[in-house]
Amino acid sequence: IPAINANPYHGYIRPARGHRLLAGGETATREEFRTPTPDFHMSALTAPASVQRDLAIHLTPLVPSLGQTRWETEKVGLIAFALDGEPLLGPVAQLPGLYLGCAFHSGGFAYNPAAGLLLAEFVADGRTQIDVSAFAPDRFAPQEVADYLASTVTQAAAVRRRH
Question: What contacts 23, CB < 8 A, 6 or more positions away?
Answer without folding.
Answer: 11, 12, 13, 55, 59, 66
